[in-house]
Batch of 2 targets.
Target 1
Amino acid sequence: MRKWLVIVICVVALSSCKKQNEVKCEPAVDAPFNLVLPSHFPPIEFPEDNELTEKRVELGRRLFYDTRLSADNSISCGSCHHQASAFTDNLSISQGIEGRVGFRNSPTLGNVAYQERLFAEGGVPNLEVQILAPIGDENEFDHDVVIIEAELQADPILNNLSRIAYDRDIDIYAITRAISCFERTMITGGSPYDKHVLGEESLSKDALAGMELFFSEELACGTCHSGHNFTDGGFHNIGLYEIYEDAGRFRITNDGEDEGKFKTPSLRNIEKTYPYMHNGSLQTLEEVIDHFSSGGLGHINQSELVVPLELTALEKSQLLAFLTSLTDLEFLMNSELSLLN
């Protein structure tokens, strides 16, 4: 009898120690997330109800790669936003469940924390609500948030993270906010260009010449592709077509002057985010440079900044060298942004 009593006491003690160790490994507390910004970047303004914390970012990272957000459990956010491609998918038009063809080319998520009016036509006001669009779109996730909530609440890991991060069982409120927290950690600012700006290293001779061309008054590329993120956040018609099948900003404003206008994309990691334009119609950066050199096709709403440039072959190669200097390899390989095991 005493022998069995000793065994029971030992089992209870071991169980208690195991539970204590589990608590130490996974404390039911949260802490601010230490988001390190490049020294030449401005601060980020976070929503008051969704400041970055460690558990919110961890929950968001798991959800970003979770295929249960799609109706047939086949795709996730990460399916159209690959880290090695600066969180694009290198398809002209992205695909949803069952190979359904979507509406547009997937944009990069690099520095999305600084963006306002998301999507190419600016139809989504902030990151917190952005994920609702692909979830409900029949050509993307085509899913029901009620079903998603029920399935994820049965996942003890995700539900526990949600309780710590948002003081509630995981639901659409926590899902949308956690994913946006994770996406705000996708900071890219360590390219050769950035190191040149900070005086840490110099660009190649061709890249320097291309940078001078890019910011020159004659080319005026830097007028729209301005600031630390190489975008003015505005909407412009660049004369890609004489007749646009996708009306762009017009779909939101119903203003004829907005037909064919699309949001200025960031040029960061542009070498990796091919193909280009809202519909992926230009496959290479060389084609993009050729388009702007030609002056566009003359749509009635075409920006006055898009004019024939008649660039020489040398100038085109120099611009290309500058654009490739915006590739941030550290960002493309950052393990904190990768798929969790």
Note: The domain at 37-188 is CATH 1.10.760.10 (Cytochrome Bc1 Complex; Chain D, domain 2).
Target 2
Amino acid sequence: MQYFVIVYSRAQGKILLGPETFADSERKAALQRRFQLEACWRDDPDIEVVVLGSESEAQIRRTHGRYFHTVAELARAAGSAAALGAP
């Protein structure tokens, strides 16, 4: 397992910082980093600071695509999935 810390701007629709990668043994450090970054952006309601746990960055890019893709890319993917009959 790895942990990835990301600072994401909802208003801009993009990652501002990260993903910073932490090994499984560094879980506490990843959480401490999250809290540190949250303190930096605490006055901006459009900022998300998250820690995502996964086996790889490729996996979080699939499962949490909204952090990595533009709105247009997500809309195209949703349209393609709908055309194929996916829920």
Note: Strands lie at 2-9, 14-23, 47-54.
